[in-house]
Amino acid sequence: MKKIAHLQQLPHATIIGLIILLTTGASLALLSIPARAQSSKGTRATTLNNFPNSTIISSDIITNTTWDLAHSPYLVQADITVNPTVTLTVEPGVQVIFDQYDSLDVQGTLSAAGSATQPITFTASSQTPGWWSGVQIEGADASHINSGSALSYVTIAYSGYSNDDLDLYYAHATISHSHFNYSNTDGIYGGSGGVADISDSSFSHNANYAVYFYDGSVNPSLARLSASGNGTNGVAFGSGTLSGAHTWAYSGIPYYVSGDLTVAPSASLTVDPGVEVRFEEYQGLDAQGTLSAAGTATQPITLTASSQTPGWWSGIQVEGTAEQPNVNSRFDHVTIEYAGYGSASLEVDYGQVSVTNSILRNSVTDGLYTSPSAGASTIENSQITGILGYGVNNANDAVTLLADKNWWGSSQGPTLG
Question: Taking the model in full, what pTM does it have?
Answer without folding.
Answer: 0.86
